[in-house]
């Protein structure tokens, strides 16, 4: 995303103005007008329980049933949702891959946007969302609380039972990717599992080293227009889908 840099930028917008020397010590700090506006906008966003994001297919006159319901992003949790086109493209790829397996099971690690689009695309697909944000408990038995700091602190019934894993580590650090890699190993079936990893271009070498994945030509984008380049790294040859694998330079 780069999520860490973006959070620092956003946190920088909400800073208190220096005190006037004539103000008594026990008076409250006063926010600048810009900081106050940023804080009010953030609080207003947090009070919106659901944000409705139409897929690209519904932008040009689609009906109401085509809309996908997403909770509001919480940047304190490093949450930045995908653009509809990105979510639809990745969901379509996962559904295509799922046809290779009988009784396919998909794990979505820290990518709730994709979970929603997958269930919209194919309600019968077995998808498990692993996510830190407890707001997603609304998905019932398909939600599992997940803290990447405890990469294998998961129910044993999830061990080695997923054919397809999609992961979007919350931070762009090697340490975070290493721990998410542990989770991927815990979840994936021992043979023939497929991995899609959405993370920053800066993680290219680490992703190849830790997970043996390569970038495809298709590039994911986020609704928040993050400044860092993001990539979709995969563990298989997609043929011409996703624009194919990127050629080595």
From TrEMBL:
**What is the species listed in this Swiss-Prot or TrEMBL entry?**
Camelina sativa
Q: Which UniProt keywords apply?
A: Cytoplasm, Methyltransferase, Transferase
Sequence segments annotated as region (Disordered)? 1-27
Recorded hits in PROSITE patterns, A to Z, give:
N6_MTASE
Q: What family is this?
A: Belongs to the class I-like SAM-binding methyltransferase superfamily. EFM5 family.
Concerning HAMAP family, the annotation shows: Methyltr_EFM5
According to its UniProt entry, the function of this protein is described as: S-adenosyl-L-methionine-dependent protein-lysine N-methyltransferase that methylates elongation factor 1-alpha.
Name assigned to this protein:
Protein-lysine N-methyltransferase LOC104792133
Name the Enzyme Commission number(s) assigned to this protein.
2.1.1.-
Coiled coil residues, start to end: none
Top-level taxonomic group: Eukaryota
- Subcellular locations according to the entry: Cytoplasm
